[in-house]
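Researcher: Next entry in the queue.
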Amino acid sequence: MDIDFYTNPITEEEVIAVLGNDFKRQGNELVFQCRACPGGDTHKDNMKFNTVKHILKCQAGCGFEKEIVGIIARRRLGQKMPEYQDFARREAPAPTEPVEKEKEIAQEALSDYYFGCHYNLMQNKDLLKKMYLRHSILPSTACSCFIGYDSKKDMLVFPSCVIGKDPTDKTLIIDNGAEYREIEGEKTIRRISGYEPAICAVLHGNFIMRGLICEGYKDAYNLIQIMKLTQPDILNHTAIFTVQNGTNSINTNNCLQKVNWHRFETIGIIMDNDKAGDTATAIATELFPCIKDMRSEYISGYNDIQERFEKEFGGQVDIDKALSATWLDEYREE
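Model: Structure for this entry, 334 residues:
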């Protein structure tokens, strides 16, 4: 008799019964150590079971999940099978040199690239106005956050600066590619290839006590503008971050877990008020109970932060007056 796992999928109870209770929950996944992996799976996170899709898989590709499924199948048929501890560890493959991803823009060239693109944008008041009308980003925000414009791609450049283990230490922030956004027209997002997804700093001061994680760069920029108007003193002590790889992949490559969020006195997460935002918030708060959902404080009844800025504060903005500020003259070509 064959077992139909499509009609009667594997349950988490069956997986736990074989692999034991030594696991972690990460969102919709149960994470176990794979006992058969070459090298022993020292981080204890290779074997993962998705409780929604009912899929068990060793992420290192050793194939041990097939034997676990075999045990579950035989148990359903009432046949005795050995526990997973009785299986021998696979032979480790010959070591190979890690292949580094080819970066679209070399690491050592990123700072110069950011500077050149920033200069291009700040020189061009027409582009600055289009950016505000399209994305609600003010010239002053473009200046403080070093936003730029790539004339060859005809795209805005949002610089990505990945943070290290300590999010309060700005010396641990390094260039990590960029996100390209359309200046006008159809919505387009693209990230510089070759760089790992990460949590990136958008604003970082000298004396940081609080942290806020936004859904995307535009939300982060608009949040800065809202806080300048409503919480200027708090903003001075707040670091603002964004998920470089997007809400649906909030913990890709365990990027959340690479940061010690406990370093802050308070740390909040502000995702959109939608299903994807709910899921991302649940993942973050389950992994780090110190992270609090702060959508009610910063988004209120709106869908996202940009919408709140546009509806509540957009009427106060005279973009033509903002573009006539004398400090912009510093960017004029001599």
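Model: The longest helix spans residues 110-123.
Researcher: Noted, moving on.
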